[in-house]
Every structure is written in C-alpha cells, then in structure tokens.
Design goal:
With about 170 residues, the protein is mainly α. It has one domain. Helices cover about 85% and strands about 0% of the residues. It contains 6 helices and no strands. Helix 1 runs antiparallel to helix 2 and helix 3 crosses helix 4. The longest helix is centred in the middle third of the chain and has 33 residues. It is flat.
Length: about 170
C-alpha cells in the first residue's frame, strides 16, 4: 500500500515533466523535479509517522503466532525508516520516465540490485542475519538509487527539450 501511494507521485511527475519538456521548458521541468521529490519526501515522512505504531498493532491484528510477530517486529523499523527515502526515489522515477531518461533508471536499478541488494542478501544468508539482513540489503539498494537520483536530478542532463527516444 505504501508503495502505491508513494508511486502516485511518479505518475503525476511523468505527465508534468513530459509536458514541460514538450514545451521546451527545461527550467520548469527542473523545478517540477525538485518539487515532486519534496512532495515524495513529505509523503514518506507522513507514512513513516503513521506506520510507527504498527510495530505493535499490525502483528496483533494479523497473527497469534509469536515467531511471526517477532519477524514483523524485525522488519518494521526498516519499513518505517525507508518511507521518506522511497518517497523521493519513486517520485524521481516519474521525473526521469517523463523525461525519457529510462536508460539511467535501468542502469541505477541494476547497480542497486545486482551490485548491492543481491550481495548483501547472500551475505545475510551466509551469516544467518535472517529477515533483518535481507531488509538491510533492500535498504542499501534503495539508498543507492536515492543517491543516484539526487545526483542525476541535480546535474539536469535528463532535462532535454522536445522529444527523446528511450535508451
């Protein structure tokens, strides 16, 4: 559910940025990119605040199994902490899709997944870190995407006026 809400900013960003670049208004497209990223961060922070009490409440509502509750409590802090960062990442995805910069999205996603998430998950498996280790790998991959998106947005090379073919 949180992913869908945060991803809704991407859908709006695609249209708004695409329209601005279609009008040859790169300044507006760049302004929109930062605005959408801020909105994504605000939404992520808001979701995090709403999710905090879920650490206790959600396990009680869905299971009576103590081991399952313990596992939910392991992953819950990761889920809460990732919301603001994920909000920026998902919103920025929309900016770059709207700009036709899908080649960059492909590359940063591959780097984050193959270069970070998969190795950390395998390390977690080898060292018996359990669900927390898997979520640490997921968090690291999202942080890598976040850093890449911020750098790409700041450089502005994605803001190409007119139309662009997808890479």
């Amino acid at each position: 559910m949180t992913t869908l809400l945060l991803d809704s900013f991407a859908i709006a960003a695609q249209s708004l940025v695409g329209a601005a670049l279609g009008r040859d208004d790169t300044r507006e497209a760049r302004r929109l990119a930062w605005q959408v990223a801020r909105y994504g961060a605000y939404a992520g922070f808001s979701l995090a605040v709403v999710l905090i009490p879920g650490w206790w409440l959600v396990p009680l509502a869905f299971t009576s199994s103590s081991p399952v509750r313990q596992q939910i409590q392991v992953l819950w802090p990761w889920l809460v902490a990732l919301q603001p960062v994920a909000g920026v990442v998902f919103a920025s995805d929309g900016v770059l899709v709207g700009a036709g910069d899908v080649g960059f999205l492909r590359t940063i996603t591959l780097i984050a997944t193959i270069g970070v998430y998969v190795p950390l998950t395998l390390i977690a498996l080898g060292y018996g870190w359990g669900l927390g280790g898997i979520w640490a790998g997921l968090a690291a991959s999202i942080v890598i995407r976040f850093a890449g998106m911020i750098l790409r947005t700041a450089r502005g090379t994605w803001a190409v006026p007119g139309t662009r073919e997808s890479n």
